[in-house]
């Protein structure tokens, strides 16, 4: 079962995403900011992370930078940034920092699920290749 | 600069005064020297003149004495006289010897002795003395007569190799007669030519007395041109005097006079002119000195004026430069401010978009969820999603209100509609709404210290507390307790809202109420930066105030003060 960590400071949004992912058959984890998210990642090693950008304590960009800098072992986990910030700067910053994708709010669940599916396919392919090697 | 500049002028004045004093002293010294020289010259001239006067008087006296011989000669060496005295022609003698001597030669007394030395004629002061008496001069007359006789005798006596010439026999004495100086002279009456002969021993002798203190003095005075000449025996008057010495060498007295002092006279004549000249010279010097002083003062003044002008120029250049610099800085500041505002506005647009998108995302996601689960959903689920949607809509409305209010405030279109309202009620409802939206936080409130009602604008006051409460919640994600405390003091209602959230750096506090400004600690937390600015503007409009205390990492307390009697005074002020 694929585990997805959802990091968002908006409880409603988090709840809605988790409901949708649960319905889609994912196991889900929740975190309210980057700091909690990092702790969850280190504790549970989720397969995919869906992360908001604007959050207190530690935002999405900071979390990505932290992983890139200090937790290289986590860098393989696909990061899907999901933000209400739609400007190009934020998109570019996120993608350059290693995000697998950048989705904007309002959320189109179909689109999100499709992205997740793509990520999973890649993950499974990687794992299959890894096993074959 | 003022003080140091006064010094050269004072120096100049001092120098000028000095010059004036020196010039005056020099003039005075010159005048003194000149006067001294004049005095010396006059003394010398006077001395010289006195010597001359003495010479003239001496010579005059000498000539008066010498003349006696010739005067006597004119009446004694005369053929007629020999003949007529022998005949004892008294009238003739009186006329031609006595009166002659008296009238033409000013002799005072004339005596004629016959061959037997008897006095045959006597005349005193032009008066024939029939009594033939002497007046204290018989001794000298006798002595001189004897001298003449001796000389006459000598001619006839044998053995004398150098006998005196008859016509030149003469005896003379200067002596005092009755305390008067006198020249007494004697001559024999002898023929003036060979036409007649006179036997030796038959000669008559004429003796004449001339006083030197009478007509002689007048003659000497005329000769020497000394009007004040007189005879005196007083030795005290010897300044201008020559001695009159008797034939025997004794002192008879003095020819004295008031010395003529041309030097002194000259000085007397020119002294007023000299003094006037000196005074004028001094005056001129002083005048010139004053002129110099004035010129120096003028120079100093103009130099000072120049210096002042220079200083003023420097000052104005400096001021102008400073002004330009200030303007440049102002422009830089304005530009920086403009850039900052632009950046803030860009950030605002971004953040506003984000802030709208977040509730939109909730609404959209909830709607999607409802749509996707329409076959399996329970009524509670629909209820929950509806609530989420409504909360999100409310959030959007609040946000929109905030932005619109900010816009209205910025363009000055906001008008307050003050009414009697209960602050406690408004805060209570704001808390209820906030807790409805954010169930994570608890708001502890004590609203008992507020007045029953205050005069305020309901809509904007609601915005104030909504904003402050939402901030307290937003910036204290891990500190669920929020405290509201109230108090009333001096006609003002105080409401403080305290959170234990992320807090702010002290440097952020002064700028906190500027539009679009967001504290650095707010990084990562969505916000437009208009809320606090809006709050401040509303509170200001109400004539109240807002203050903030914050410690980074410890939390923030905002305190709002609102006047109980409303914003009326403030509004009036604004209208004016």
TrEMBL record, chain A:
Q: What is this protein called?
A: Response regulator
CDD domains from the UniProt entry:
REC_OmpR
Positions of post-translational 4-aspartylphosphate modification: 52
- Superkingdom field: Bacteria
SMART domains membership: REC (SM00448)
Q: Name one GO molecular function term.
A: phosphorelay response regulator activity
Question: What UniProt keywords are attached to this protein's entry?
Answer: DNA-binding, Phosphoprotein, Transcription, Transcription regulation, Two-component regulatory system
From which organism does this entry originate? Neorhizobium galegae
PANTHER family attached to this UniProt entry: REGULATOR OF RPOS, TWO-COMPONENT RESPONSE REGULATOR ORR33
Q: What SUPFAM superfamilies does the entry give?
A: CheY-like
Which residue intervals define the domain Response regulatory in the entry? 3-120
Q: Output one GO BP term.
A: regulation of DNA-templated transcription
A GO cellular component annotation here is: cytosol
Q: Any keyword Phosphoprotein?
A: yes
């Amino acid at each position: 079962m694929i585990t997805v960590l959802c990091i968002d400071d908006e409880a409603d949004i988090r709840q809605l995403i988790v409901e949708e992912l649960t319905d889609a058959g994912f196991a889900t984890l929740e975190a309210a900011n980057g700091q909690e998210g990092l702790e969850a990642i280190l504790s549970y090693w989720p397969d995919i992370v869906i992360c908001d950008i604007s959050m207190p304590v530690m935002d999405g960009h900071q979390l990505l930078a932290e992983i890139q800098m200090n937790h290289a072992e986590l860098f393989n986990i696909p990061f899907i940034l999901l933000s209400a910030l739609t400007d190009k700067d934020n998109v570019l910053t996120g993608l350059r920092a290693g995000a697998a994708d950048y989705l904007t709010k309002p959320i189109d669940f179909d689109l999100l699920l499709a992205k997740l599916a793509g990520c999973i396919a890649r993950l499974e392919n990687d794992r299959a290749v890894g096993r074959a090697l | 600069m003022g003080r140091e500049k006064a010094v050269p002028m004072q120096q100049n004045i001092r120098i000028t005064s000095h010059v004036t004093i020196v010039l005056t002293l020099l003039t005075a010294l010159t005048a003194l020297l000149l006067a001294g020289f004049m005095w010396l010259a006059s003394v010398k001239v006077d001395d010289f003149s006195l010597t001359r006067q003495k010479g003239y008087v001496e010579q005059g006296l000498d000539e008066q004495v010498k003349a006696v011989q010739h005067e006597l000669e004119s009446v004694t060496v005369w053929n007629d006289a020999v003949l007529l005295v022998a005949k004892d022609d008294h009238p003739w003698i009186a006329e031609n010897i006595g009166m002659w001597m008296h009238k033409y030669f000013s002799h005072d007394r004339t005596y004629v002795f016959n061959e037997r030395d008897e006095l045959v004629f006597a005349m005193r002061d032009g008066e024939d003395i029939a009594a033939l008496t002497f007046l204290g001069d018989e001794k000298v007359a006798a002595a001189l007569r004897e001298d003449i006789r001796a000389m006459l005798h000598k001619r006839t006596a044998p053995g004398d190799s150098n006998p005196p010439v008859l016509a030149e026999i003469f005896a003379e004495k200067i002596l005092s007669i009755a305390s008067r100086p006198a020249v007494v002279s004697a001559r024999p009456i002898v023929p003036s030519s060979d036409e007649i002969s006179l036997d030796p021993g038959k000669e008559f002798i004429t003796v004449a007395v001339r006083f030197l203190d009478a007509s002689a003095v007048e003659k000497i005075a005329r000769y020497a041109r000394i009007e004040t000449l007189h005879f005196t025996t007083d030795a005290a008057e010897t300044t201008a005097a020559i001695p009159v010495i008797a034939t025997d060498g004794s002192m008879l007295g003095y020819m004295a006079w008031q010395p003529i002092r041309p030097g002194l006279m000259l000085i007397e004549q020119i002294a007023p002119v000299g003094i006037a000249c000196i005074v004028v010279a001094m005056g001129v010097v002083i005048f010139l000195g004053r002129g110099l002083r004035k010129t120096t003062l003028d120079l100093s003044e103009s130099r000072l004026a120049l210096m002042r002008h220079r200083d003023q120029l420097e000052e104005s250049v400096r001021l102008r430069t400073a002004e330009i610099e200030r303007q440049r800085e102002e422009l830089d500041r304005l530009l920086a401010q403009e850039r900052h505002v632009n950046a803030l506005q860009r950030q605002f647009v971004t953040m506003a978009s984000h802030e709208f998108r977040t509730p939109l995302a909730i609404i959209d996601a909830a709607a999607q969820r409802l749509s996707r689960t329409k076959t399996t959903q329970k009524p509670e689920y629909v209820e929950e999603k509806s609530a989420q949607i409504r909360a999100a809509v409310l959030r959007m409305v609040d946000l929109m209100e905030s932005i619109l209010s900010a816009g209205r405030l910025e363009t000055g279109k906001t008008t307050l509609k003050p009414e009697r309202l209960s602050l406690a009620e408004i805060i209570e409802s704001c808390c209820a709404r906030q807790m409805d939206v954010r169930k994570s936080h608890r708001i502890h409130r004590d609203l008992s210290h507020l007045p029953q009602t205050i005069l305020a604008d309901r809509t904007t006051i609601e915005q104030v507390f909504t904003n402050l409460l939402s901030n307290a919640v937003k910036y204290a994600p891990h500190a669920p307790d929020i405290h509201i405390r109230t108090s009333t003091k001096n006609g003002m209602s105080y409401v403080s809202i305290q959170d234990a959230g992320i807090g702010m750096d002290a440097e952020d506090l002064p700028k906190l109420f500027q539009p679009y400004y967001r504290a650095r600690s707010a990084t990562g937390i969505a916000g437009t930066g208009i809320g606090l600015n809006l709050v401040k503007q509303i509170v200001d409009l109400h004539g109240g105030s807002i203050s903030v205390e914050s410690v980074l990492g410890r939390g923030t307390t905002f305190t709002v003060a609102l006047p109980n009697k409303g914003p009326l005074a403030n509004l009036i002020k604004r209208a004016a």
